[in-house]
Design brief:
Elements lengths: L57 E6 L19 H18 L2 E6 L8 H4 L8 H5 L6 E2 L9 H15 L8 E5 L4 E4 L5 E4 L5 E6 L11 E3 L2 H4 L3 H7 L7 E5 L13 H11 L5 E5 L5 E7 L2 E6 L5 E8 L20 E2 L9 E8 L2 H7 L5 H4 L2 H16 L5 E5 L16 H12 L10 E6 L10 E4 H7 L6 E7 H13 L31 E3 L4 E3 L11 E2 L16 E2 L9 E6 L10 E7 L3 H10 L10 E2 L10 H9 L20
Parallel strand pairs: 1-2, 2-3, 7-9, 9-10, 10-12, 17-25, 22-23
Antiparallel strand pairs: 1-13, 4-5, 4-8, 6-7, 11-12, 13-15, 14-15, 16-18, 17-24, 19-25, 19-26, 20-21
Length: 659
């Protein structure tokens, strides 16, 4: 593991910790706790898991799409644990696996930043968060598309991250130009063949979906090409015995997803090795999901943003070298066949754990709150706190008076974030030299990446809610054209590599920086008005609001039962207006203001409405340094000063408003 050199962490005295011994503490030792667990601002959950986990011959814990949320969700109690808590929990679980004489592997499938100040407030992105991430003892990792957008970030992973993880970092189809040789090289390893602690022989690949938005220093080899490359075929037909193929990737596990290449990968392996089980772990689509591929092959995807920790256990893997037990004693065991007709003898369980201390303490069986924390976990929690201070992430812009969600309320209703966006755009995005000219300020709804929760609105929140840095441009046009631009945009195809209107979801997905490559709010089903994710309803009828999931094994996968949070269709664009005549008359011309990200789309729409414009007519409305990340902080500083600095904090999305 890479030791963080960014911070100093004073040794704590009289902490309630467990020693980092091979199999955990031999007896409970209780001392006075002097260090605050989690982050100081965080809340803990009030409702815990429904039952202990099922432990099998081989077990997995899976993270994906963490996007820098290592501090946890400071204003949402379901997800309040930080990375230090996860360090302690994963250590407990590794020790428990040792006590049970079974194997436990930790897997991550990429996208480590772009979405939180801890990862994004310093350049290159990840320079603070990656050393903290490295503190978890992962067994296998792979790369995400967010590691490839920016060349400096890609090289950080080539020079540093890949060296930390060595053979555990597998990037089977991602290469980068090595400046020393001017040749493409794999960022990580092409594959990993290894034995588990108890002797299972595993061949692992790490495959990114067919991403095309990378900078020109990297190359993503398409899956259709990969499966024909001789080294890949030779690895499948490896001369040493293989008990299990482990295919991980920043890649949706649901094979009907337009971006997923797991179907092709599975079919290629299965054609050559018909009797070897395949286990897949995916990511990218930000959902909880579990798919059965055949009677000895399944795949798990584990959400996003440190909201979910995925769990899979399996028993019945045939291996002449396995030295552990098949059905560990004293715990529940997996019992579900992949298919009703399976004769493989392999049984499975899967679970989606909420990312909070209550969940972690519950499943670290035999641990009480007083002995849950390891020194290593407390140190990492301290490093996160120190990093947040150094980056000034708690710098307060104002007190958000309520929670505005991205999809739990109808578009532009009072609790919907785009009603706030509309108001803020009209109020603060103004060129002082053109302030008397009527303006319509338009942004794509995909520029909003997360809900805005009641409580302190900080520098950190500016990255969480609106992380992209797109500049504001404009064209002055006749009012007759301007008045129709927003509606025309919302009826136009997304400015993207793919037109989502023809997708399986029945409704155009909200546009993002690259919406086909980088989902944010979710996949919307217009008919039912609920957030859908290939058969999943995100955040759904019990106790506190949160996730409810339906996958190939049914509806019992969520570790903590939750009540449903409704979800509604959202349009692709939203606008704020200002400086229009108050006497009811219409102006001759209007400044149509928009983000440079979709400037060409606006020009095209204006011309379809009867204009004759080109991109040469587009000018900057605000200085290029004023971006889509700036208008909400500016609005907060002007209009959210009540209760500063002691902001009342809400419970999170889906909870009743107390204002």
């Amino acid at each position: 593991m890479r030791a963080s050199t960014l911070f100093s962490f004073a040794a704590a005295v009289s902490l309630a910790v467990a020693c980092n011994s091979c199999y955990g503490p031999s007896s409970e030792v209780i001392h006075e706790r002097l260090v605050r667990r989690m982050q100081p601002e965080a809340q803990d959950a009030t409702i815990g898991p429904k039952a202990p986990l099922e432990w099998g011959q081989l077990n997995f814990m899976h993270t994906t799409d963490t996007h820098g949320w290592l501090e946890g969700h400071l204003k949402e109690q379901n997800y309040g644990a930080d990375w230090g808590d996860f360090v302690s929990f994963s250590t407990h679980m590794k020790h428990k696996a040792g006590n049970l004489a079974v194997d436990l592997l930790l897997v991550d499938t990429g996208d480590l930043h772009d979405g939180n100040g801890l990862s994004d407030a310093a350049l290159p992105n990840g320079v603070y968060s990656n050393p903290i991430f490295d503190e978890v003892d992962y067994d296998l990792l792979t790369i995400g598309n967010h590691e490839l957008y920016v060349s400096e970030v890609a090289y950080e992973h080539f020079y540093n991250f890949s060296k930390v993880w060595g053979e555990k970092y597998v990037t089977s189809n991602v290469q980068i130009v090595n400046p020393a040789t001017s040749q493409f090289e794999y960022i990580g390893k092409q594959y990993r063949y290894f034995k588990t602690e108890h002797g299972l022989r595993i061949m692992a690949f790490g495959v990114l979906f067919d991403f095309t938005g990378n900078s020109n220093v990297s190359k993503v080899i398409k899956a259709a090409t990969l499966v024909q490359q001789q080294w890949f075929l030779d690895a499948i037909n490896y001369p040493e015995p293989i008990d299990l193929f482990l295919v991980i990737g920043h890649n949706p596990i649901r094979t009907t997803d337009f971006a997923s290449t797991f179907g092709l990968l599975h079919n290629t392996i299965r054609a050559l090795r018909p009797n070897v089980p395949i286990q897949a772990f995916g990511g990218h689509s930000h959902i909880r999901d579990f798919q059965v591929y055949d009677d000895m092959s399944t795949g798990l995807e584990s959400g996003r943003y440190c909201e979910t920790l995925g769990w899979v256990s399996m028993s019945g893997i045939k291996s002449s070298s396995y030295t552990g037990v098949m059905k560990p004693h004293g715990v529940a065991n997996p019992s579900r066949l992949a298919t009703n007709t399976s004769t493989s003898g392999i049984v499975y369980s899967r679970r989606y754990l909420d990312w909070n201390r209550l969940t972690f303490e519950y499943h670290a069986t035999g641990s009480q709150a007083s002995t849950f924390d390891y020194h290593s976990g407390l140190r990492v929690t301290g490093e996160i706190t120190d990093a947040r201070k150094e980056l000034n992430l708690a710098s307060l812009y104002g007190c958000a008076p309520q929670t505005w969600c991205a999809s739990c309320q109808p578009f532009e209703s009072s609790g919907n974030i785009f009603s706030l966006v509309s108001t803020a755009l009209g109020a603060v995005v103004v060129n002082s030299s053109r302030s008397t000219i009527p303006r319509i300020v338009i942004v794509n709804t995909g520029s909003i990446r997360f809900d805005l929760v009641k409580g302190p609105f900080t520098f950190d929140d500016s990255f969480i809610v609106s992380p992209f840095t797109d500049a504001f441009q404009y064209i002055n046009v006749p009012y007759a054209l301007a008045k129709n631009v927003l509606n025309s945009l919302n009826g136009a195809p997304l400015n993207d590599k793919r037109n989502s209107a023809g997708s399986d979801w029945g409704y155009v997905m909200p546009q993002v920086k690259d919406s086909c490559m980088d989902p944010i709010i979710g996949f919307i089903n217009e008919e039912k008005g609920e957030l859908k994710a290939r058969g999943h309803t995100r955040r759904q009828t019990v106790v506190t609001p949160g996730y409810t999931t339906k996958d190939d094994f049914g509806t019992d996968g969520d570790d903590t039962p939750h009540s449903k949070i409704p979800s509604y269709p959202q349009l692709n664009y939203v606008a704020g207006n200002a400086s229009f005549p108050t006497d009811g008359t219409t102006p001759a011309t209007v400044d149509v203001v928009f983000l440079d990200f979709f400037a060409s789309t606006v020009v095209s729409v204006l011309n379809k409405l009867g204009g004759t414009y080109t991109t040469a007519n587009v000018q900057y409305y605000m200085p290029p340094t004023y971006t889509s990340q700036n208008y909400l902080p500016e609005y907060a500083k002007k209009y959210w000063q009540e209760n500063v600095p002691n902001c009342p904090v809400g419970q999170g999305v889906g909870f009743p408003s107390k204002i």
